[in-house]
């Protein structure tokens, strides 16, 4: 039995750092997770703000819940990079 939601998610080396994203878009699964889960923005509002379909948002959230450790590691890596960049810039 095939899992249909996967058609909405893709990982491509060189695009968004190879992070999982909405197929054909540069909207990463992690962005959708942050919008909906951390910022408590509804699925409908997330879809509207990011110009996505509800199916795309639900597929991203489904992917997130199946790969939470991977996505959280990606978010942590981004936070570390931002912190390091800010520290470097403030020291100049």
Structure overview:
The chain is mostly helical and 92 residues long. The chain is 59% helix and 4% strand. It has helices at 29-38, 43-50, 54-66, 68-90, and strands at 9-10, 21-22. Strands 1-2 form a two-stranded antiparallel sheet. Helix 1 (29-38) crosses helix 3 (54-66) and helix 2 (43-50) crosses helix 3 (54-66). The mean pLDDT is 89.
Figure out the total of helices. 4
- Oligomerization status of the protein chains: single chain
Q: Classify the beta-strand content into a percent band.
A: under 5%
Mean pLDDT: 89
CATH class: Mainly Alpha
Q: Give the low-pLDDT segments.
A: none
Distance between the termini: 56 Å
- In spatial order, strands of the major sheet run 1-2
Quickly list its features:
59% helix, mainly alpha, two-stranded antiparallel sheet, 2 strands, 4 helices, 92 residues, 4% strand, single chain, Arc Repressor Mutant, subunit A, globular
């Amino acid at each position: 039995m095939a899992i249909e939601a996967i058609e909405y998610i893709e990982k491509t080396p060189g695009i968004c750092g190879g992070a999982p994203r909405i197929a054909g878009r540069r909207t990463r699964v992690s962005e959708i997770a942050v919008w909906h889960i951390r910022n408590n923005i509804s699925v409908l509002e997330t879809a509207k703000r990011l110009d996505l379909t509800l199916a795309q948002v639900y597929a991203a959230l489904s992917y997130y819940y199946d790969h939470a450790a991977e996505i959280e590691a990606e978010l942590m890596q981004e936070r570390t990079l931002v912190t390091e960049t800010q520290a470097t810039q403030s020291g100049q």
